[in-house]
C-alpha cells in the first residue's frame, strides 16, 4: 500500500504504517551517521542535551556528497543502519519516531521500535542521486566539524521509502523470505 506521511511523524500515523508499505515523506527529517550518533551518546553520558529533539522526529542514516551547483545537496543515499544499532534504542526511548537506512536491525532495535511505537524505513541503496531530488533544502545544524557526518536538517517532499519494521514489530526482511520460500 502507498502512504503519504508528514515529518515530524504523528504517533497515530506511524501506527497505521505496515511492513511492506511504500511511503512518501514530506516535511522535516534529520541526518546522522556513525560519528554523529557517537557524539550524541557522549553528550547523553555527560548529562548534556542533544542538538535536536528526538520526539516525533526522523533520522536518516546518510552522509551526502557535495552539492552540485543549483542543488541543495549531492547524492543522498542511505548507509547501513546496523552501525547505529548500539545507539538507536536510547534515541527511540527519547521519542525518536522513525529511522531511515538500509539493511537489517538488531533485536534490541526491533524491541525498542515496538516499545515506542516507532518505525524503521529503508531507502534504496545505490539510488542516492535519485533520492536527492526529493530533498528541497539542507542545513547543517550540529557537529559541522564532522563534514559529511554532521547533523543536517532536511526539508523533503515525497521522499520514497519502504516500511521494513512497523510499530508492531513485523519485519519485511523476515516476511519476504517466507513469501519467497512459499513460491519455490
Keywords:
27% strand; alpha/beta; 5-stranded mixed β-barrel; 184 residues
Write the layout of secondary structure elements.
Blueprint: E1 2-7, H1 11-16, E2 22-31, H2 34-45, E3 58-60, H3 88-93, E4 98-101, H4 107-116, E5 119-122, H5 128-132, E6 135-142, E7 151-165, H6 172-183
Parallel strand pairs: 1-2, 2-3, 3-4, 4-5
Antiparallel strand pairs: 2-7, 5-7, 6-7
What would you note in describing this structure?
With 184 residues, the protein is α/β, with parallel strands linked by helices. It has helices spanning 11-16, 34-45, 88-93, 107-116, 128-132, 172-183; strands at 2-7, 22-31, 58-60, 98-101, 119-122, 135-142, 151-165. The chain starts with a strand and ends with a helix.
Amino acid at each position: 500500500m502507498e502512504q503519504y506521511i508528514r515529518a515530524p511523524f504523528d504517533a497515530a500515523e506511524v501506527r497505521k504504517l505496515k511492513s511492506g508499505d511504500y511511503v512518501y515523506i514530506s516535511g522535516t527529517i534529520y541526518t546522522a551517521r556513525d560519528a554523529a550518533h557517537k557524539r550524541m551518546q557522549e553528550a547523553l553520558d555527560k548529562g548534556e542535551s542533544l542538538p535536536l529533539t528526538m520526539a516525533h522526529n526522523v533520522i536518516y542514516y546518510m552522509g551526502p556528497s557535495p552539492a552540485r551547483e543549483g542543488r541543495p545537496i549531492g547524492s543522498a543515499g542511505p548507509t547501513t543502519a546496523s552501525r547505529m544499532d548500539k545507539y538507536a534504542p536510547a534515541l527511540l526511548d527519547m521519542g525518536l519516531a522513525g529511522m531511515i537506512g538500509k539493511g537489517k536491525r538488531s533485536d534490541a532495535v526491533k524491541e525498542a521500535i515496538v516499545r515506542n511505537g516507532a518505525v524503521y524505513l529503508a531507502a534504496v541503496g545505490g539510488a542516492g542521486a535519485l533520492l536527492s531530488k526529493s530533498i528541497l533544502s539542507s542545513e547543517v545544524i550540529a557537529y559541522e566539524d564532522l563534514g559529511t557526518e554532521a547533523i543536517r536538517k532536511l526539508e523533503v517532499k515525497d521522499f520514497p521509502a519502504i516500511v521494513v519494521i512497523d510499530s508492531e514489530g513485523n519485519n519485511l526482511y523476515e516476511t519476504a523470505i517466507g513469501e519467497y520460500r512459499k513460491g519455490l
